[in-house]
Amino acid sequence: MTDTNDWLADANHPSLETPIAARLDDPALPDRLTWNTFHTLSQWNTDVWVPRFLEVALGEDNALVECEWGEASVDVWRSGLELTGSTDVVIDGPDAVVLVEATFLTDLGADHLAVGADAALGLPQRADSGKPAAFVLVRPSLDDANEAERLQDELAADLLDLPEGEGHGLREEALEHIAGWLTWADVGALAVDIAEESDPLRQELVHRLVTQLQARFPGIDV
Questions:
Q1: What's the rounded Cα separation, in Å, for the pair 63 and 85?
Q2: How far is the CA of 216 from the CAs of 63, 72, 107, 160, in angstroms?
């Protein structure tokens, strides 16, 4: 039986034959866990899990939650961004697009969200689609609720106080509604929730994913 830590979801995907797939073999990079996370989630209809994903990251009242997400594509390494300590995922739906950056780094704050939001807004511009866009950062879990609350407050305060003209070109009030974050534990919990509504094969995929999450983040609460 294949070691769960070496497992790859959707192992016959054509992207795995491209040079960038070599990043999967570097344990310091989040590519393998990112690949397995989003290719596991993609086993479910995107109109089931993408709105839940966005609710956690951007808030329940976010406009993109109400967009049509059925038949959305989910692609790792598609954005064209040259990320070193992170992995990019593009979720491209009929009505909107989301750029996800998944990382093991713990020091990415509000300024990084601004840069990511700017990159997200560039995706529909390049495709000439005119779709609304958002940026979601998937980051390591926080040790306790107090730290999570502190970080959320810090990000909110920084977003409201971002100076103009520092590369992102975004109005502060607009940035609040198109950029957000959630933890690897949050994403794992989402996968577990939807697996409870599914068949044994998909439940096994989530079991393997949770095992990888727990190996990378011992003590993670999923």
A1: 30
A2: 33, 29, 18, 33
User: What distance in Å separates the CA atoms of residue 86 and residue 103, rounded to the nearest whole number?
Assistant: 4
Residue-averaged pLDDT of the chain:
85
Spatial contact of 88 and 124, defined as CB atoms under 8 Å apart: no
Query: Residues with Cβ < 8 Å from 213, sequence gap 6 or more?
Result: 33, 184, 185, 188, 220, 222
pLDDT tens column, 191-202:
999 988 777 878
Q: Which residues contact 161 (CB under 8 A, 6 or more apart)?
A: 172
Residue type, 137: L
Q: Would you state the structure tokens that stand for residue 3, as one six-digit string?
A: 């070691």
Identify the H or E element spanning 45.
none
> Does the reported pTM lie above 0.85?
yes
One-letter amino acid at 2 equals T
Structure token digits, residue 26 = 């570097």
The burial class, CB within 10 Å (0-12 / 13-18 / 19+), for 199 is exposed
